Amino acid sequence: MVGRERERRGWRTGGGLGPALAGGVVCVCLAGAGCSGQGAAVQGADAGDPVAVLHRAADRLVAAGSAKARTAMEMASGGTRVTIRGEGVYDFEGRLGRLKVRLPQDPAGTSEHRPITELLAPGALFMKNRGAGVPEDKWVRVETASLSDGNLVTGGATDPFAAAEVLRGTRTATFVGRTELAGTEVRHYRGTADLARAARDASGGNKKALAAAAEGFATAEVPFDAYLDDEGRIRKVRHRFSFSNGRDEGTVAVASTTLLYDFGAAVRVRLPEDEDIYAGKIAAEPGEADDKN
What we know:
Blueprint lengths: L4 E4 L15 H9 L17 H6 L1 H8 L1 E12 L2 E12 L4 E7 L13 E6 L2 E5 L10 E5 L16 H7 L3 E12 L2 E11 H7 L2 H13 L4 E8 L5 E12 L4 E12 L5 E4 L23
């Protein structure tokens, strides 16, 4: 797929480092901040069985084609809390996206990290301005299936389609009620998804990554709140993940929120050529194990 370019206008289609980068963005933030069978369901206002509705949510996004996205990832560990924010576009049919991820300020609040540009593709994450000794004009490629969290957390933003496919693993869900989100009437659902089940039902690009997350997280059970419009498309989804911090054996609690809007937006994503991908060693960040790759 390297070098592939895909463009979407309106509604129409117009050398990996693997586990060396696992937790790369998240470790930078937490270290810099100072820390080393379906269940019962309630029927949902003419929308049908909430569990079945949520199982179909990812397919509704594919039918929609594309959207703009905003992300927020809140992480808490050892009394420290940081938030990483992202913004970009995503082509659900082509499974390609582009996000600009902004890291939080340093503990002193006197400087900011440069935004990281992320390209999302089936089975891969590309990052530019990664830091840690990577030249500014080079991209870093990570195979998402090699990450213990399946890139639900590592990149500092959950891939929007992966976030939707987590809902394929919904085991229990209730319809909370109707509300309004950014001027759009939506249905609010609350439930729990199982990552192993989501992996079994996911698209080819997310199967291995979600399976890795099911094994790598502290628990495969993921509580969530999802807000769907009357066409069944996700407008907002918030997952709560939990994973072990191997450095001090603590637990990191993560709340990942994805907002989707402006469906049918133009999306143009060009993946890097081989010569633009960094093949060298990634320097260890403070609190991050040195990689001998």
